[in-house]
Design goal:
Blueprint: H1 2-30, H2 39-62, H3 72-97
């Protein structure tokens, strides 16, 4: 049970790092530091976008349009920090203390 808890927390942490890498790569591409025509950076950006966009798309539809600033990654990070981590810890704590299993 402890191993499953650790694996789930590692997967969540990996998603956080992927989200941060996506944001940094997006800014570098947006400011012209990296060129989107470079196939290497395009393939990395595309792979990260396929992982991150399904989570951020519903949040973008809820948030108001703020022009060129995207607050969806910050909202996702805050949701993970304040909802997902405590919920996972609470669920595994309840399963660990339950005597019927």
């Amino acid at each position: 049970m402890v191993a499953l808890h650790a694996i789930i927390l590692m997967l969540i942490q990996a998603f956080v790092w992927i989200l941060l890498a996506y944001c940094i790569l997006s800014m570098l591409l947006g400011f012209g530091v990296l060129d989107i025509r470079n196939r290497f950076f395009y393939s990395i950006f595309n792979a990260l976008a396929k992982i991150v966009e399904p989570v951020m798309a519903p949040i973008r539809s809820i948030l108001p349009n703020t022009g060129g600033v995207d607050f969806a990654p910050m909202v996702v990070l805050l949701l993970i920090q304040f909802l997902v981590y405590p919920a996972v810890n609470r669920i595994f704590f309840m399963l660990a203390t339950q005597s019927s299993f």
